[in-house]
Amino acid sequence: QVQLVESGGGLVQAGGSLRLSCAASGDTNILVRMAWFRQAPGKERELVATMSPDSEYIMYVDSVKGRFTISRDNGKDTVYLYMNSLKPDDTAVYYCAGRDSTTGSYEYWGQGTQVTVSS
Asked: pLDDT by residue for the chain (119 residues), tens digit each?
C-alpha cells in the first residue's frame, strides 16, 4: 500500500506562485510514475503533469506548459509542483497520484489540496 499526502495549496492572486508537495509513504517501490491532477468545479479531472521515477520522462498539459514545473526528491519520496504565473483558470483541487507498476493505473491518490487564484 502507498499513502500520498499533499500540502501547499491556498489562495493567491493572479500572477502569483505556489508550490505543492506530495509526500509518499509505504511501498513506494511499486510506483512507476507520479502525477498531479486537478479538478475544477463542474469539470472533469485532468492530468496536469507527470514524471517517471528517474525524471527522464516528464509531460505537461498544454495549458500549464512554461508555467508549471514538476520535480521530485527521491530521497524524501516527495513530488513537487511549482506553479508560476497562476491564472484564475488554474483554480481547482489538485491531487497527487501514483501509478502502480503492476496495473498501469493511477491507483493511489492523495486527499487533494485547494488552489484558488483570484483575479
From this structure: 899 999 999 999 999 999 999 999 998 888 889 999 999 999 999 999 999 988 899 999 999 999 999 999 888 889 999 999 999 999 999 999 999 999 999 999 999 999 999 99
CB neighbours of 4 closer than 8 A, spacing ≥ 6? 22, 23, 24, 96, 97, 98, 108, 109, 110
Round to whole Å and give the CA distance between 7 and 5. Answer: 7
Question: What letter represents residue 108's amino acid?
Answer: Y
Burial of 105 (0-12, 13-18, 19+ CB in 10 A): exposed
Strands (E) in the chain, as ranges, are 2-7, 10-13, 18-26, 31-39, 46-51, 58-60, 68-73, 78-83, 92-100, 106-109, 113-118
The x, y and z cell numbers of residue 29, run together, are: 517501490
